[in-house]
Design brief:
The structure is a single chain. By secondary structure, the chain is α+β, with helices and mostly antiparallel strands. The protein contains eight helices and 21 strands. Strands 13-12-11-8-7-6-3-18-20 form a nine-stranded antiparallel sheet. It has a seven-stranded mixed sheet with strand order 14-1-2-15-16-17-19, covered by helices on one side. A hairpin with a 4-residue loop joins strand 1 (about 25-30) and strand 2 (about 35-40). Helix 7 crosses helix 8. The chain is globular.
Amino acid sequence: MRTVLFLSSLLLIAVACVPSVACTSFVMDGPEGPIFGTNLDLFIPGDGLILVNLRGVHKATYQTGTTGERHNWRSEYGSVTFNLAGNEFAWGGMNEAGLVVSSMELRAGEYPEPDERPAFFDGNWTQYVLDMCATVDEAAASLTNLAVRDGNYTSHYLVADADGDAIAVEFLDGEQVVHSGEAMRVKAMANIRYERGLYAHEHGGRKWWWSNPGQSSERVSACQRRAEAFDAARDTSAVDYAFGTLLYYVAAPNTRWSIVFDVPSRVIHYRTDQSPIHKSISFENLDFTCGAGKRMLDVNTRHEGPVDGRFVPYVPAVNQNVFQTFCERYGINVSDEDARDLMGFYDAFTCTP
């Protein structure tokens, strides 16, 4: 178990240290409900898996609190997630209730010190929220008795629900901070503190070029301006409009994934730099019951259009290879046995109807 903990720490330090200095996420109002757009930017290839996660799966946190206890739960909602480092480490995704979560690096953040609360790693909390929450209020409440603790650098999150409400979740100076309600005047985030991006937008946006990394304030402001300018009578497709924002206003040379979540329709549209043709995933064509089994798809599949029928049964060995490839790119030496032990903890979760 010590070996697994050591490897898990290495993995999450690597995830946190990814030089992803240009990730951007935003929410805009479409004619029928919220549209959520997000770009993943990395200086390494954007390999990974798209996973169909089932409802009814019994899970547990890997990290315990100071009391040695884990938190256990049974997933209430099925979800589709985009995973860089393997099963249960979700970078972002949407669940059946229409809740969407996206994560972005925030080097100015600081996770809480260990206390009695069981804790999630970064991607584990994203998956937990998609497992258990239908609204942003529920997502915020999940941090009451649970914590997020990770490696050297932190992430922060944009979360939105089917009603169009959004929150920004950050970890600043060792404290959990949630921006919501009237404080959430801008529904866009990049790689700077939410309040700094908000301030920059409200004071000129593009003039705040000093807000590195990656001119984050400019990207925040660009997303908000685009969202406010959307006109359903003129811009016939909210999804296309959101893609336009991602591809022409906030894209970077190292943009790997561009994803648009059409929340009212429960359809995910995406493209990758390795396979830039348009792809879509409709929840209407997915089965999230235990009997269907967990399923996976290479995020860079060469297929175009609907890929609902391209998912295949989840294979632990393939997932382990995704994890090991990720580690190799960061010079982390992980044996096959250790990789199986770490991924095996999450692969051992069982589903009951």
